[in-house]
Design brief:
The complex is a heterodimer of chains A (213) and B (313). With 213 residues, chain A is mostly helical. Chain A is built from seven helices and no strands. In chain A, α1 runs antiparallel to α2. Chain B has one domain. Helices cover 68% and strands 0% of the residues of chain B. In chain B, α3 runs antiparallel to α4, α5 runs antiparallel to α7 and α5 packs parallel to α10. The longest helix of chain B is centred in the N-terminal third of the chain and has 32 residues. Classes of the chains: A mainly alpha (213), B mainly alpha (313). At the A-B interface, α1 and α4 of A face α10 of B.
């Protein structure tokens, strides 16, 4: 009972961290928010490893902490321009973003979750699949972060957040998720490496300029 | 029956008479933290008395709305006093006249009346404050009503007294996720509605003025009534925060123990004043257009609370 409460608490903190990232203007605090989110996901993994007595989840937690928490944060931070604490994105309308984000969440909860996910069985609480809701919400927020911003750094953070949602789903749902984390890690690492090259070229994207003939 | 009448009278008179006291205590404590001597804790009463004796000036061209709305708003707050658990933890005589959501809508109604009256004065400064209030309130009132709806989801009834009883009898319900979210959202709304420092600098400073500008054209007796309603509003919102969300324990209902509720409520309010004072003295005022961000966060918390209470139960 108490552990279920802690799992819920960690999941809700992850959700709040996603909102924190969504509401940030400064890119540096966004990256730090992603760090906090990864640490929280690692904590969820460690907790479930303790509960299930599973070595896989323990290794997975350590992998998340090292690769996602430290390595990606380090790579993103070193790619930032020199006066990094001053780099921010203009034209971020927080109330508008939050309201649209809430609409996403309402759709996620009441439509997709109630139709598709209510029959699945998670690790932590058999018979109650409500923890599976949080990965889905995180996934939606990652997508929305990518679509709502123009800065390349923000879009990378949004992608990482989306992958965080997948990893969280793997933690909550499957007993052997290391293969997923490995593939997702390679995915993210490749993306971060490639996009850090791109950010040298251009740090913001105007609307659809690439596709203009 | 006699107990019921006594309880009703106690709750009504306590809110009516003691509401300015908490504003005074707050001002005094804040002055002490800032190393000032500060006014007496009874200063709000002296202010009200002084204003009641002064001449009332009414702007030329204002209508009957301007002159009578302060009394109507005062009456609305008196009605709210009787329907939510602000002193006595059991239902009293007029409780059945509205539920929790009714209370929230009455708060919105009083705010609307005051805005309409301020617009009626024809003053530019009042119109500026009204436009600020109107552009912020769509999130503030939304969050307030959402929190109240969500509270009713926990106990499956729209009765704040039941919520209070439920929280007292189930201590573990006070640390559930939904409750924490709701408390946070309601506390943010409380700071906004009472105009505390991260959002509004008190007094007549034009840059940070939101709620105060509604009183700009009022004077004399009408200003006294308006100020008194503000104190009552602050007391009512704070007591709902304390009794339904933050600290539901310690209230008694049977004769003669219900008289103990008065010192208990004062003690609880000292706790709340302490928390608010820490926030007021440590944070700087946010810029005016950032208030919408703040309210969006409160609204987000309240909606999350609504969703989580729906999913987890």
């Amino acid at each position: 009972m108490i552990y279920d409460g802690i799992v819920y608490l960690i999941s809700a903190s992850i959700l709040v961290s996603a909102f924190y990232i969504q509401g940030q203007r400064y890119i540096m605090s966004m990256i730090r928010g992603q760090l906090v989110q990864s640490i929280l996901i690692a904590a969820a993994s460690f907790l479930l490893a303790y509960l299930e007595n599973s070595l896989d989840l323990l290794i997975l937690g350590a992998l998340i902490l090292i690769l996602r928490g430290i390595l990606i944060t380090y790579m993103l931070e070193t790619r930032m321009p020199r006066r990094k604490s001053y780099v921010f994105e203009e034209g971020v309308n927080v109330p508008y973003l939050f309201l649209v984000d809430l609409v996403f969440i309402v759709i996620a909860v009441f439509i997709i979750y109630s139709i598709i996910f209510s029959t699945l069985v998670p690790i932590s609480q058999p018979g109650n699949s409500s923890t599976l809701l949080f990965p889905l919400l995180l996934f939606f927020q990652g997508i929305f972060l990518i679509t709502s911003r123009r800065s390349t750094y923000t879009q990378i953070v949004g992608y990482v957040e989306e992958e965080n949602g997948l990893v969280l789903l793997a933690i909550f749902l499957l007993p052997v998720p290391i293969i997923i984390e490995a593939s997702v890690f390679l995915d993210v690492l490749a993306l971060v490496v490639i996009s850090s090259v791109i950010t040298v070229e251009k740090s913001t994207h105007e609307r659809m300029e690439e596709l203009r003939g | 029956m006699l107990t019921l009448i006594l309880e009703t009278a106690t709750q009504f008179l306590f809110v009516l008479l003691a509401a300015p006291l908490f504003a005074g205590i707050f001002a005094k404590f804040k002055a002490m933290v800032e190393s000032r001597k500060g006014p007496s804790i009874f200063q709000p009463y002296f202010d009200l008395l002084k204003l009641l004796k002064k001449e009332t000036l009414v702007p030329q061209g204002s209508s009957i709305l301007f002159r009578y709305v302060p009394y109507v708003a005062f009456g609305v707050y008196c009605l709210i006093t009787l329907i939510i658990p602000v002193v006595i933890p059991v239902p009293i005589i007029f409780t059945a006249s509205a539920d929790f959501l009714g209370g929230a809508i009455l708060f919105s109604f009083a705010a609307f009346l005051k805005m309409a009256a301020a617009m009626d004065s024809g003053s530019n400064l009042a119109a500026m404050g009204v436009s600020r209030l109107a552009s912020f309130n769509f999130l503030g009132e939304g969050a307030l009503i959402t929190v109240f709806i969500a509270v009713s989801l926990i106990t499956a009834t729209d009765n704040p007294y039941t919520t209070n009883q439920y929280l007292v009898s189930n201590p573990s319900a006070n640390i559930t996720l939904v409750h924490v979210f709701a408390t946070l959202a309601f506390f943010m709304i409380f700071l906004y509605e009472t105009g505390k420092i991260p959002l509004e600098s008190s007094g007549m400073q034009e840059l940070g003025m939101i709620d105060e500008s509604l009183n700009y054209e009022y004077s004399g007796r009408l200003l006294a009534v308006n100020k008194w309603s503000s104190y009552m509003k602050q007391y009512l919102l704070g007591s709902v925060l304390l009794n339904v969300f933050l600290f539901p324990w310690g209230l008694y209902s049977t004769y003669p123990y219900f008289l103990l509720d008065i010192p208990v409520m004062i003690g609880k309010w000292l706790l709340l004043i302490f928390i608010v004072m820490i926030i007021e003295t440590t944070l700087a005022k946010v810029r005016l257009f950032k208030i919408l961000d703040y309210l969006a966060v409160a609204f987000t918390f309240s909606i999350l609370f609504l969703l989580l209470s729906e999913v987890m139960h």
